[in-house]
Amino acid sequence: MQANDGKSNLAIGFLTVIDCPEQGLFGGYLVLNQLSRPLEFHCTTPIKPTRAQQILYGPTLKPYLYGEQIGRVLAASAKTRPAAVFTDREPALALREFVDVPVVLVPEPENGPLEGGATDSIYRIDAAHPGPSRLTEFPLGPHRLMVPSWAIADREAVGATLGGIADTFDFREPFERIREAIEEARRGG
Amino acid sequence: MEGHDPSWPKTWTRRTASLPGHRASASESGPLNVASDYSVQGGVIAGGGEPSPIAVRSWHPAQAPDVIEENLALSVALFPTGWNRAVARQPEIKLVRPELASEAPRAVSVPIRHPAIRAKSFFFPDPALPVGSLPETPHASPKPAARTPDKPRTRTRLKPPADVIKLADRLRYVLQPSLETLLESRALTFPFAPFAYQWEGVAFLYPRQTAILADEMGLGKTMQAITALRLLLHAGEVRRVLLICPKPLVANWQREFHVWAPEIPLLVIEGDQARRRWQWELPDVPVKLANYELLHRDREVLEGSQGPGTDFDLVILDESQRIKNRLSATSQAASVIRRRRVWAMTGTPIENSPEDLVGIFDFLMPGYLTPAMAPRRMGRAVGDYVLRRTKDQVLTELPPKLFRDAELELAPSQRETYKLAEEEGVLRLTALGDSITIQHVFELVLRLKQICNFDPVTGESSKLERLEADLEEVAASGRKALVFSQWVDTLQRLRERLQRFGPLEFHGKIPPRQREAVLRQFREDADCRVLLISYGAGGVGLNLQFASYVFLFDRWWNPAIEDQAINRAHRIGTSGPVTVTRFLVVDTIEERIDRILQEKRELFDTVFASGLGPRPKIGLTQQQIFSLFELKCPGPTDSAADPRHQAA
Question: Which residues of A touch B113 (CB under 8 A)?
């Protein structure tokens, strides 16, 4: 990722992973400018975890595949450094450990309206007992977003760089484009 | 005795009867040390001798007491435990030497391979700054209104055309934001919210190099084309656009541009030849607007100039049926325009036969279609390039269009004149023998049709009588009407006779600069109830949806032209049903032509009900025109005849 030139050339990354039962996991990464127009698109060849990986990685398999493997490769392929990377897949937040830009979760809208402050309602289902919250929710304009709790400072960074466009920018719609593009790429071989 | 069972008593006490003089043995009190005081012999405790009962004697001082002997000896039985021996026995120590050296444990390694992931990358040019800055729209708000993210919105996405093969090119379209987002991001607004099908029309045009927007009249083709080119200009994908339309529609296009794309400068090519040449060669004009007639006159400029001013990224042909004849001067002039994208707009891509479509495509994609192609194959070939919607399909809420055919009898003087003219005309045509041409027949047809409108001598007209009666009702209800004729002379006569309805004229003899004023007056002046329009001048492009009635005073040769005329009133914005009255004089040439028109209308409906499926080649052929008078066609020809140029 190269340096973002500034707000006039603001770039925003969108990362998602599609699970196709037949072929495996496809990753897609779209970089948009502030007008929501595409600058770059990267997609991965499909991968399928082995049975041994499923056993050995256990509940950490998805973060490993989504964030560490797919997300990392895609982010490394991009030439433009985004102000932040948005994802609609919680395991992909694991990418944050490998990149120096905020990685933000755009939760499903049916999760309900933002009620303010940090949330403590999301836990790993495999945890032996409820622990501290792993995600911190925060508002950005009319949107509700989440960052890993250990990277809580990202909230301020995201607000500072993207707060100006938050009212008009749709942070969920680009994932639809990525899915269509991956489908187009699959059809095209 | 550490570690013994706590339930086991440490001492035993021997109980005895205590008698005077009786001395208890030393061992009678105190703890009994089993190990030291007793030895275990055959399981009986021996206390210094034979175990015997304790003797107790009763004693009385005066009397010798009776002695009662009670055996007080408590029988104590001990069970052998072997403790003493065990305690005495020397411990035996055995040495055990276990073998500590054993076989090394085996480790099973499960390799964890990291999946090999490859990424495909696609880069797109930064579209943030379009070439050539366009001024902001005066309607644009500085910042779009905030939106609610979870609220479902209409999203119209671009789809790559079928002829875009390369994956990178296809993705460029797939990855574009919705049209609504594109507009929002540019702070571009509309005066009215477009219909969903209009968004789809824009999404159809936007990515296409070649396209025909063939929506039925009144569905807003102009708005769709303007919006699509507006987006392309703002995205920097096109820099110079040329719009070509019929001359009567130039003012209409200007008006529509002002409404739908007010920020885009529009240059109308007009004036004398020197001025037009200068206008053509201006390089930095986003949109130029020319009419077909000028195109023919300025062909030399278009052909000779090599500057950027005559090199267009996009050419839009409105009413593109004007170039359906590939050999016409207009079509030939259009062919010299340097262009990359071409969009054609027409409500009637097929007026007479599939050859019309071949002619239009000859400009769009030369050689792509040929007249020899089977209709089914042609339909498949153009499928991705043509978008056709009808009002029935997309505007279910549009008020209905009510037809009523007014079948009239000729007035007595008209009948007499008509009969005489037909007989003389047929005799004259017959006398021409083999030298007869289609022009001769047309002349007679037109003559008879004019008599059906008005008796040339007396001015009598059964149509006018009926029209006056109908207009009384229209005026009484506070509504307005359009009256179409193919003759300016007829329209002028009507104006004289319809003065009480405040008639206005709109035809080729009205100077173009006055036409806007005429339309404005008709729209705004409550006393102007009737607009008299010629098919040629008012058939296309006008928005007269405030008129509730349409009268076809005489009939055109082609049902598509009549539909265009009707749809001046029956279009978006119509607030109520539109009543269409088609005048037809029975037992005349009009009735005979109507039969052919009806067949053509059925053909048109058939074609667009099934795309471009198989259908016979039907048109108003020369043979059919000759047959109107039961004349024999002199030459073997089957080409469709369009006598439109005969009209005044």
Answer: 50
CA distances, B139 to each of A34, B393, B636 (Å): 22, 32, 61
Cα separation, B32 vs B11, whole angstroms? 5
Report if residue A174 sits inside a domain.
yes
Q: Do domains B167-394 and B401-646 have the same CATH topology?
A: yes
B175 and A CB contact within 8 Å: yes
Nearest to B269 by CA among B281, B257, B260: B281
* Architecture of domain B167-394 in this structure: 3-Layer(aba) Sandwich (3.40)
Number of residues written out for chain A: 189
Tokens 């479902």 locate to B152
Task: Tell me which residue in B113, B124, B148 faces A142 most closely, judged by beta carbons.
Answer: B148
What letter would DSSP give residue B621? B
Q: Does residue A101 lie in a domain region?
A: yes
* A140 vs A158: CA distance, rounded Å: 8
Query: In this predicted model, what pLDDT tens digit does every residue of B141-196 receive, in sequence order?
Result: 334 434 444 444 678 989 999 988 899 999 999 999 998 888 877 778 888 788 88
Please indicate, yes or no, if residue A2 is contained in any of the structural domains: no
| Gap between the Cα atoms of B281 and A32, Å rounded | 37
- Cβ atoms of B218 and B570 within 8 Å: the answer is yes
Residue A27 has pLDDT above 90, yes or no: yes
| Residue A161 to residue A102: CA distance in whole angstroms | 11
Pairing of strands A135-140, A143-148: antiparallel
State whether A185 and B184 contact (CB < 8 Å): no
Residues in A closer than 8 angstroms to B171, CB to CB, are 41, 181, 184-185
Taking only residues 99 to 118 of chain A, the set having a beta carbon closer than 8 angstroms to any beta carbon of chain B reads 109
- Amino acid at position B229, single letter: L
DSSP H/E element including B450: helix B438-453
| Domain total of chain A | 1
Q: Give the whole-angstrom CA distance, residue B15 versus residue B420.
A: 172
Which segments of B396-495 are extended strands (E)? Answer: 401-408, 481-485
d(CA B104, CA B280): 94
Residues B117, B119, B120, CA angle at the centre, nearest 5°? 150
> Each residue of B52-105: pLDDT tens digit?
444 444 455 566 767 777 777 777 777 777 777 777 777 788 888 877 777 778
Q: Which residues contact B376 (CB under 8 A, 6 or more apart)?
A: B612, B613, B614
CA pair distance B164, B158, nearest whole angstrom:
13
Provide the pairing of β-strand A24-33 with A11-20. antiparallel
d(CA B417, CA B449): 12
Which residues 6+ apart lie within 8 Å of B52 measured at CB? B73
Interchain contact A62–B (C-beta under 8 A): no
pTM score of the predicted model? 0.62
Return the domain boundaries, chain B.
1-76, 167-394, 401-646
Look at the domain B401-646 and name its fold.
Rossmann fold (3.40.50)
* B477-495 burial: b if 16+ Cβ within 10 Å, else e: eebbbbbbbbbbebbebbb
DSSP state of B384: T
What is the model's pLDDT at position B15?
45
